[in-house]
Amino acid sequence: MHVQNLSTRPDLLEPALRLGDIGSEFMQHDPVAILTRARRLVERWPEFFLVVLDGDVPVARAVSVPLTFPAPEREHLPDHGWDGAIIWAVEDALDGRPPTALSALDVQVAADRRGEGIAAVALNGLRERARDSGLDRLVVPVRPTGKARHAMLSMDDYLSRRREDGLSEDPWLRTHERLGARFVKVAPFAMTITGTLEQWHEWTGSALKPGPNAVEGGIAPVLASPEQNLGVYVEANVWLEHPLS
Q1: Nearest to 53 by CA among 19, 22, 23
Q2: With 0-12 CB in 10 A as exposed, 13-18 as middle and 19+ as buried, what is 114?
Q3: Organism's domain of life (predicted)?
Q4: Are the C-beta atoms of residues 184 and 155 closer than 8 Å to each other?
Q5: Which of 73, 205, 208, 223 has a CA-to-CA distance to 14 between 20 and 30 Å?
């Protein structure tokens, strides 16, 4: 397998997008994510949009954005996690500030090729891309895949679930740990999505009851208020940092 980026292989964009979406329908309504639509990223940072090829066949993508971290006003990774990384990257691009770090946004493996270690190839591709670009860090706001089965559990409690070998029970966190990634912090407000109760019904196919609701694909509950006709979803992510040496 080998890794290409879209600055040299722009023809790989459409096949890469066909590998799948990052989550359920409701996740497409995070307003910050609008800043990182694939075609926008390719226009601005094609070199950081990677595609893993098995021969000539795309089997995974790894999307990332460059940003400045640390900086005098950025001593810690953002509590807003995934959303925060996007905002920082856009701020730095608008301000013309040279990046010093790379933040992953999305790693997607073809559904019929999961479990083959391809995600590790994609992550190693991001590490190499960061090094080759003269960046000092690779950070990842990880969305634990297994957390969807425990939506009502706090992220701290979920992270305490370890296997006998000491690795996380979560398969996606475990992939990062095996590559030497270290835990930095929980990002408690990594993605925030709001909508009316009617919109949430459209997005999930379920009618929300007052209070917390587990929804398909959610790693946290949707808090519903009939009085305000409002549903609010706030999920936590886990900041990890990968070694570049």
Answers
A1: 19
A2: middle
A3: Bacteria
A4: no
A5: 205
* pLDDT score recorded for residue 234: 97
- Partnered with residue 217 across adjacent β-strands are none
C-alpha dihedral (67, 73, 75, 77), degrees to nearest 10: -50
Neighbours of 212 (CB within 10 A): 13
Q: Please choose, from the candidates 243, 245, 118, the residue with its C-alpha nearest in 3D space to the C-alpha of residue 172.
A: 118
Q: Alpha-carbon distance 90 to 45, whole Å?
A: 11
pLDDT above 80: residue 22: no
Confidence of residue 20 (pLDDT cuts 50, 70, 90): confident
CATH number of 2-152+163-189+237-242: 3.40.630.30
Largest CA distance in the chain: 56
Neighbours of 8 (CB within 10 A): 10
> Which residues does 99 contact at the CB level (< 8 Å), separation at least 6?
66, 67, 68, 89, 92, 135
pLDDT-derived band at 130 (thresholds 50, 70, 90) equals: very high
- Phi, psi dihedrals of residue 98, rounded to the nearest 5°: -60, 135
Question: What residue ranges do the domains of the chain occupy?
Answer: 2-152+163-189+237-242
CA distance 103 to 74: 14
| Confidence at residue 21, expressed as pLDDT on a 0 to 100 scale | 74
- Beta-bridge partner residues of 103: 65, 139
Which tokens in the block code for residue 64? 């990332």
Q: Which residue shows structure tokens 């949430």?
A: 200
Residues with Cβ < 8 Å from 165, sequence gap 6 or more? none
Of 7-11, 36-40, 48-52, 171-175, the one with minimum mean pLDDT is 36-40
